[in-house]
Amino acid sequence: MKKRVLVLLGFICVLSVSLYAQQRNIIIKVSDEKQLPIEGAVIALIDKGKEIRSVISKKNGEAVLDQVTLGAYDIKASFTGYTAQILSNVLVEKNDLYLEIQLKESISELKQVVVQSSKPFIQREQGKLVVNPDASPTNSGTTVVELLEKSPGVMIDRNNGISLRNKSGVLVLIDDKPTYLQGADLINLLSSMNTSQVDKIELITNPSAKYDAAGNSGIINIKTKRSKQIGFNGNITLAAALGWYPRTNPSLLLNYRYNKWSHYFSYGFNYSKTKTDIYALRTYFDAVGNPTAILEQPTVFNNKGLNHTFKYGTEYAATDRLSFVFSLSGSLINRKGRNTAKADWLTPQGVIDSSVSTVANSENKFQTGAIGIGSRHKLSKTTQLNIDADAARYDLSNQQLFRSDRTGSMGYTESTQGFIPSLINILSLTANYSADLSKQSKFEAGVKTSKIDTDNDAAYSMSINNSPWKPNYGMSNHFLYSEKIHAAYGMLEQKFKKLTIQAGLRYEYTHYDANQLGNIVVKDSSFSRNYSGLFPSGFITYEADSSHTFSLSIGRRIDRPSFQRLNPFVNIINKYTLERGNPFFRPQFTWNFELSHQYKQLLHTTVSYSLIRDYFSQLFLTDPDGSLVYTQGNVGRMHNFTLSAMLTTKPTRWWSLNTEAIYTYKKLIGYVWNNYRSDISQLTINMNNQFRISKKINGEISGTYTGRSRNDLQEELYPFGQLSAGLSMPVLKNSGTLRCSIRDIFRTFWMEGMTDFLNADEYFILRRDSRVFTVSFTYRFGKTGKAAKQKTATDEMRRVEL
């Protein structure tokens, strides 16, 4: 396997160099009449009167048209409120080009909002990878969960855990703010969000000290759409999809900017009906390894989901230096499920001994609400202070009803019902200060305090052979949890001629109190914990020349066990499978080291190493009655070595290719029922091909592949992947976009693997409703005009984000 990986990476390197031999980069800097850089300008590359590609300028006004084939071109720069400029007959020959374009203000009014360019699906920026959903036709009509599943290096396992670059433990942010959810609750929230509401996703493997220290493998930051255009504008998206069952997820985005006020609003609706098949074959062994019994469990999950999400925000520029922001968001998630399962106990020879059939009905209601207020104060030309206060509330309700019927002479009917409400209240206050010490140096510092209070109740009752319902005090539970986190950080960045250095240090203090209220069977219990830590981070970047850039980054991270995992209550999965929390769960700490090399805009290679102590792992325990208990705990340490290569190129003028190969070697050392060691070599490949089929029609073929993998000490996953394709074209004089796609064409996005237990093992395969046909239509509307010039913290109102 290792040899094949090295051959693959070598092939990518050779291919990249040969393709680049006949290509050059064009670097364009766009500025206004006062020589100030313009961010968000559209730079188009035109060949024989036909636009073949476009890019967006960054904060310094620069944009790069990379890998341009030798020849003569026109280059056009445009920006809202300015007159477009064209450089004619630009010759691309032996060397890269550096050009400057100056735009003059225009007082003409734009009659219509028109998308003039498209971003690439994948962009690499300092310290992060950026995914632009609108650049991919196969993202039409999807949810954020489905978008993440096809993002480079992201995987969601069957237990709803999210991993990044083959490492579990991810901090998920929405608009730079933590969700404070994990597992199924987090997946339910992300499943309620439509991809059409997302502007971009940032994948940050080694975050700076400015971010929370949580997240062993890094941060996934989901940035929702918010137009920067002046005036009233918006868009509406209609989408219909068909898998095994029909789905739909329309959305509406509205924006209004004028003078000192800015408003934005988004709403998304999501309806889906899905089916999932799970087959599990569990074999029990005696002390010498001979099979003693077999448990075969086929299960069918049928689910319906009806979700609403909204967000409103406003910004008011009170003075030239002071502005205020306000946001309000919420969601209403309702999921109903009906599951049928059968458990057949067999002899080692495969003869059925007894059978239990189970029907389970569940209804999950998830209501969220969040409010945020803040100020942006420009203290001087070089200093700024941002203050934010946020409050959020999650109200979860889960009702379950299980009925199990056993056949044969020992037959019985056993029913269990549960009512599991959960309430989460979150408060946080953040202050961030930044100062440009000079043109080459910048200092940032900040403080944050947050408080989380949860109230989780689980009331179970049982009925045997249709007898009256009686409380099951042994399974019932009432769990109260309160957590406080206080943090402070400082960070300094210094630029030299070819060298950029950033160093930061973050301190976090955590205190929590947990109280399990008792009943007539279960005694009261409580526990508290205090811990703190220093979390250094930083990077060094060296630009050797115009072609080669080297970067070294280091950081220490922490993963805290979620309150759901600390709660010791029992959750029923089926008759012989339970899930239980672990009140003795401790945080895990990680050191991350990463060395990377960038060859122009063509090839990016990375070598990284991570050491995780008190490693989190899903644990699979066996009860005396043969039931399987899922829980989580600290098992030891993990060594993670990763080698990756990302190739971004244009083999032809009509074909753009972005592909990444990630090879990881993991070594896990821990203790479950005895000293346990496991290791694995894992290969992940992500590919995205964009095609210009005609002047109006664009196409895409994308795919992901994950080889044998292991995120947990006791569980190994077999290879799986998917291939998707899509088309998009503008309609209605460029005011609308029509897209169609098919995801998981060959229905291969299934999860299959093997789990080891004490004196048992289990083979499983999970088949999801993953092959989906989608058609979507997006219509953009509104007018924009030139606004009065303001030198305020909201100057970026003039920027266009397409």
UniProtKB/TrEMBL annotation:
Q: Where is the Outer membrane protein beta-barrel domain?
A: 380-779
Query: Main localisation, per the record?
Result: membrane
Q: What InterPro entries is this protein classified in?
A: Beta-barrel_TonB_sf, CarboxyPept-like_regulatory, OMP_b-brl_3, Plug_dom_sf
Keywords recorded for this protein, A-Z: Cell outer membrane, Membrane
> GO CC: one term?
cell outer membrane
Membrane listed as a keyword: yes
Give a yes or no for keyword Membrane in this entry: yes
Pfam family example for this protein? OMP_b-brl_3
Compartments it resides in: Cell outer membrane
UniProt-recorded name of the protein: Outer membrane beta-barrel family protein
What is the scientific name of the source organism?
Sediminibacterium sp. KACHI17
| Taxonomic path | Bacteria, Pseudomonadati, Bacteroidota, Chitinophagia, Chitinophagales
